[in-house]
Amino acid sequence: MKTTSQQWTWWKRHLVVIVLSGLGTGLLLYSRAEWSSMHRWNRAIGDMSLVLVALAMAIGPMSRLWRAASRYLPYRRELGIYAIVLALVHATIILFGWVTLDLMRLFGFEFHPQLQQYVMVNHGFALANLIGIVALLYGIVLAVTSNDFSQRWLGSSVWKYVQQGTYILWWLSVLHTAYFLFFHFLDYHRATPEPNWARWPFVALVLAVVLLQIAASTVTWRKSIQPRGGRARAS
Q: Which of 1, 54, 102, 115 has the fewest CB atoms within 10 Å, i.e. the most exposed one?
């Protein structure tokens, strides 16, 4: 049983992440006011989902580099949960707004009226959406097991192994997003919608997470070899 203080802390984390998600999505919507409604909501919610995953990935390395950042470690759970909630909304918009529940279109096929059958017209769309679907399914598993009950039921070692899949989720999400930012509209005479301003901020975000992980790994490695070096000099 959680104490009243623990329950308040739990609710506070959820509230903080919900407000962050709402504000971030609102700003992303405002930044693309000239886009069609479907594409605005699709990209804003998808991008905000990626930002939440990036924050969850960054908190761990930051806590190793700066001790004060360790107070934010509990937020990783809520960041991951709401990233998946947004990803589900993102997928729903694509299904209803972009491919209009035609699952063949989701994988790059279009119906050819003369041939009276579906033909592949966009190979990249198929691969990118397949990556997105795998990421979403994997994320749902992580979100469903991201609670104290699952930790007790699975056992600490199994639960940690499952939750380490966040790294897989992160890179699948990066690949999925990169395709739509840089490659999807290259087959057209002009970009539809207009070129996305988020391209290079996306690159910066990914590089920031990678550099934080490298820096944290380097610091951890140096700490692990210091005692050995000390004993070697003493001997």
A: 1
Q: Which amino acid is at 44?
A: A
Q: pLDDT digit string (tens) for 68-121?
A: 989 999 999 999 999 999 999 999 999 998 888 888 888 888 888 887 888 887
Task: Tokens 């509230």: give the residue.
Answer: 15
DSSP state of 185: G
* Cβ pair 219, 65 in contact under 8 A: yes
Of 234 and 213, the structure prediction assigns the larger pLDDT to 213
Distance between CA 89 and CA 23 in Å, rounded? 16
Q: Three-state SS string across 48-111, please?
A: HHHHHHHHHHHHHHHHHHCHHHHHHCCHHHHHHHHHHHHHHHHHHHHHHHHCCCCHHHHCCEEE
Q: Which residues pair with 131 in a beta bridge?
A: none
Decide if pLDDT at 123 tops 50.
yes
Q: How far is CA 199 from CA 28, 59, 195, 227, in A?
A: 13, 23, 9, 44
Tally of helices (H runs) and strands (E runs) in the chain: 9, 2
